[in-house]
Amino acid sequence: MMSLSEIGMLIFVGYLGLMVLIGIICARYQKNMDSFWVAGRNIGLPIMIMAMMASVMHGGAILSGVALAAKDGGVAILPFISMALGTLIVLVYFAEKLRLMAGYTLPDYMGERFNSRFLRGYSALIVALSSIIYLIAQVRVMGFVLQQLLGVSFTTGLLLGTAIFVFYVTFGGFLAVVWTDVAQFWFMWLGLLVLVPGLYHLVGGWSDVLAKVERVAPGWTSPTGVSWSWTYLVSWYVVWLVAYATRVELVTKIYAARDVNVARFALPLNVAMIILFLLYGNFYLGAAARVLVWDRISSPDQAFPVLVTTTVGPFLAALALTGIISAGMSTTSSLLIIAGASIAHDLLRKCYYEPHGVFKSEKFYLRISRITILIVGVAAFLGAVRTPELILVLVSYAVAVLGVTFFFPLLFGLKSKRVSREAAIASAVGGSVVTGIWIILNLMKVPWATQLHPALPGLAVAFLFIVVLTRYTKPVPRACLAKFFPEEARLVSSVSAE
Description:
Blueprint: H1 4-27, H2 33-38, H3 45-56, H4 59-72, H5 78-101, H6 106-114, H7 117-150, H8 154-193, H9 196-203, H10 206-216, H11 230-245, H12 248-251, H13 260-292, H14 303-311, H15 314-353, H16 362-384, H17 391-413, H18 421-443, H19 455-472, H20 478-481, H21 486-497
């Protein structure tokens, strides 16, 4: 009988071949910036739903989601409410105007809406740096899983995973990201569903597993779990709500939708599928891991791989672990394309070259984008070698900085014409700097700082700045508002006609 590593090698080689093939095929269609960064703005509803879900449900969401649920219990339910409300904000406030804007990135929005090269450039750097942190977490997921699946060293697993997604994104662009997301969507579901019969036999259904886990870990089924305070729990709810409302890999896909209706209808359907996925993929599996394997692991992030290898045979275990690799790659590929576009389009093209009267070809910016993708991939690999064990904490820091930077300029900037350049800059910079300082204090284990997630004080500062400065500064010129407010567009058109 073949071993797990032998079966895993066969399945992984097949998966690898599919990803490379998609990258090569999609590379034939990469002729300009629209095709490379937003797939020609031609993604339909079914493909958009699958691509959105695959990019949001990253490997860390499964691997560390199971780890968090197994370790702390009821707090693992927090993504459900936060994700639903955060995505509702995107649906109601962001989707239509961002799609009509026809931009490429969130820094694109910041620069256009607030008429600020500084804000565009600052946002681009935040996206690139946060993407590296985020990618470190995803690369570690792939390293853990490939180590278990192929029997290779952790570092070799990191190198293999990084090389694959950097290859198909560099050559295939956003079209490759979307179609690999679709393939990874099915791998993710298959990878989790193959565990159902074995787990049901061992721990039973929902009521059975909850009763068993409460006996081995009293308090596990409570909202605060076995160790969290209400203060920290609420802060995490707020952080993840803001995170889902500003998830660059989710929001940026709106630019690629065929039309406004696709952008809007994909969001609620995406939420429904993710909630079903998380109920089983985090909560149920976390409870099962606490009951079955908790005393056999040295790190919470080992919970899922060990649960898989002890629950099912080698072939199904290889499928399940490949599903987690798929989840990790679907998010990493989205982040890579976003980081490349932010540096090439926002930082170099819009902040440096064109303001100085230098106009480069689209091929030049696509080359810069590809070079950025390579650099970010290498940086993520190097950073993944030594990072904190609980991957979800690392991810939360990245989404905290992103969320604080973009949340209020997006929310207020798309609803009110009064929000000024100065208010948006102060909100984005002030909030992200405070969040960064608080992250450092958390890493230093300063007692009073660890009572709140770093995003909370950052959000408070960002909100204060944007509200106060909006009252005392002038709005941006009407021409800048025309892209986002139809009534302003009509006024600008009538003035031009006169």
